[in-house]
Specification:
A five-stranded mixed beta sheet has the order 3-2-1-9-4, covered by helices on one side. A hairpin with a 4-residue loop joins strand 5 and strand 6. It is an alpha+beta fold and about 240 residues long. The longest helix has 16 residues. It comes from Streptomyces salyersiae. This is L,D-transpeptidase family protein. Pathway: Cell wall biogenesis; peptidoglycan biosynthesis.
C-alpha cells in the first residue's frame, strides 16, 4: 500500500501516535500469580517454574528457593526489564528464558523452516513466536536476526504480508510526546522503530515492532518504501 501527500502524513502520524501507547503503559507489578507487589524485595517463595529457572541459570536444581537462587533470578529479571525483579520464578520469567533460548537456537539461519517468503527479493521478516526479526534478499540472510518487542495481548502486531509505505527518521508522536526514531510504517500505525526499553520488557508494545537503537538504524539503512514485510507466528503470552 502506498499513500502520498498531506493526507498520508496525517494518517500515518495519527496511527503512529496510537502505536506507542504500549510504550507508555507501565506494566503491572505482578509475580505471575495475580498477586500485586508493593516493592521488588527478594521473595522467599518458590515459583511454579522454580526447577526450570534454576536449570536455565545453572543453579542447583532442587525446586527450593534459596537466597542465592533469588539473587540469581533477580539479576536476570533486572537485566531483561522484567518487573518486579523480586526473584520469583513465575510465568513471565520462564517465558522470557524460553524465548531467549529459541532466539539463540535460530543462529544465522532464522528462516530454516521457510515460513518467511523467499521469492520477494528484499524482505523484512518478523517472527512473533520467537520475537525475532531479520532482513533477507530472497533466501540469503542480509541482516540479523535481532530480538524485537512486539504488540502486547489485545494490541498484537498484525500478521500477514505488508509493505513499508512511509518512513520518518525522527518521528514524533504529538499525542504522547514520544520520539519514535527510525520509524518505518508498514501497516496502519504499526512500524519498526527504536526504543530504549529492553526487548523483553513486558507486556509489550501497542503493535509496533520495537527495536534496539543500533538495529533500528540498520533497518533504516537497508529498507526503502515499497519493500516487503512479512509478519507471522504468535507472541508468547498473547
Amino acid at each position: 500500500m502506498r499513500i502520498s501527500g498531506k493526507t498520508h502524513g496525517v494518517r500515518a502520524r495519527r496511527g503512529a501516535a496510537l502505536s506507542v501507547a504500549g510504550l507508555l503503559a507501565a506494566p503491572a507489578l505482578v509475580l505471575g500469580t495475580g498477586t500485586s507487589a508493593q516493592a521488588a524485595s527478594c521473595t522467599a517463595s518458590k515459583g511454579p517454574y522454580q526447577k526450570q529457572v534454576e536449570k536455565y541459570l545453572k543453579r542447583p536444581v532442587d525446586g527450593r528457593q534459596s537466597t542465592a537462587d533469588c539473587k540469581a533470578i533477580r539479576t536476570f529479571q533486572a537485566s531483561k526489564g522484567i518487573t518486579p525483579a523480586a526473584g520469583y520464578a513465575g510465568p513471565v520469567t520462564w517465558r522470557t528464558m524460553k524465548t531467549i533460548t529459541a532466539q539463540k537456537a535460530a543462529g544465522k539461519n532464522p528462516n530454516k523452516a521457510r515460513k518467511c517468503p523467499t521469492n520477494k527479493g528484499r524482505i523484512a521478516c518478523v517472527d512473533l513466536t520467537r520475537q525475532l526479526s531479520w532482513i533477507q534478499d530472497g533466501a540469503k540472510l542480509r541482516f540479523g536476526p535481532v530480538p524485537v518487542r512486539t504488540g502486547r495481548d489485545g494490541a498484537e502486531t498484525r500478521t500477514g504480508a505488508k509493505r513499508i509505505y512511509w518512513r520518518n527518521i525522527d518521528h514524533w508522536s504529538t499525542l504522547y510526546d514520544v520520539r519514535m526514531p527510525y520509524a518505518q510504517f508498514f501497516d496502519g500505525g504499526q512500524a519498526f522503530h527504536s526504543v530504549t526499553k529492553s526487548m523483553y520488557d513486558n507486556p509489550g508494545s501497542a503493535g509496533c515492532v520495537n527495536m534496539r537503537p543500533a538495529d533500528a538504524k540498520s533497518y533504516w539503512n537497508l529498507l526503502r518504501n515499497g519493500d516487503d514485510v512479512f509478519v507471522y507466528g504468535r507472541k508468547p503470552g498473547t
